[in-house]
């Protein structure tokens, strides 16, 4: 463990959600107009989905939310608790207690904002074969207010963090907070990182994403998100190396470091663009029978990556650790893990 690891070094901000995970058939997806390997926000037509999963499909409850998953995985790799902190909004209910308990068990420093206006957010995780479809009912997560980052102890967490990671999902909740934190990172030369999170983010939230992108030092995304980003910005190419290169060259305010772009492609190679050079890293092949589901794989990849990044490791080691973490997570249900990680440099 690097000697410079300290409490509060890394800060994550996002939507804390309790995953309600169940195996369903394709007819169930069609009933609720959902697609495999997609992530959407719940609409009126999805309201009965959650009770149906719980009552008829023997659903499991798993602590979730993209950034919280990532922070938990990062902590898994570290020998010191509370190196990573996490902010998001939850309800005053039993679901938030489950989230809190799991996060604390994993060594994460949680700084939830609590609201009585809405229940804790939930995310339906619909497993069909090895694929997963996510349908998030943000509820309380939508209530995250700017006042939370003005609370002295929370403001201090932001000031103390050297690395800040925020999901694209959070753009649907409070883009003003993201702008505030992004500007703080720029003014203090901190590493500011984001994830595209889902194909609908670069599509339906193009403007808030464009507003924050100039501050982003490292941008993560998967192949579907990258493809939509390219289409929305009229890149006139479907070559993902070209797409990643073009994203890396978009306006960047902090010129002290070039933007790094990392695109995951399922079981395909990881695509890295750094210093205007595109590199591919092969993923680890897992026997088909060992794959339980892909839920949380992307979150775990970023978690493994960040665990090495904040220790000052080379980008290649960060990516290899991310790949290792993702391969572990797809062999369990949801973003869960047991024992100590035995990733070797």
Description of the molecule:
With 345 residues, this protein is an alpha/beta fold. It has one domain: Ribokinase (UDP-N-acetylmuramoyl-L-alanine:D-glutamate ligase), CATH 3.40.1190. It has helices at residues 26-31, 49-56, 66-77, 94-105, 152-160, 175-187, 200-204, 206-212, 223-232, 240-248, 297-309, 315-329; strands at 10-13, 17-23, 39-41, 60-64, 84-87, 89-91, 109-110, 113-115, 121-128, 131-137, 163-167, 191-195, 218-222, 260-265, 268-274, 277-281. α3 (66-77) packs across α11 and α11 runs antiparallel to α12. The longest helix has 15 residues, at 315-329. The two termini are 12 Å apart. The mean pLDDT is 91.
Topology record:
Layout: E1 10-13, E2 17-23, H1 26-31, E3 39-41, H2 49-56, E4 60-64, H3 66-77, E5 84-87, E6 89-91, H4 94-105, E7 109-110, E8 113-115, E9 121-128, E10 131-137, H5 152-160, E11 163-167, H6 175-187, E12 191-195, H7 200-204, H8 206-212, E13 218-222, H9 223-232, H10 240-248, E14 260-265, E15 268-274, E16 277-281, H11 297-309, H12 315-329
Parallel strand pairs: 1-5, 1-11, 2-9, 3-10, 5-7, 6-8, 11-12, 12-13, 13-14
Antiparallel strand pairs: 2-4, 9-10, 14-15, 15-16
Helix pairs in contact: 3-11, 11-12
Characteristics:
single chain, 345 residues, alpha/beta, UDP-N-acetylmuramoyl-L-alanine:D-glutamate ligase, nine-stranded mixed β-sheet, globular, Ribokinase-like
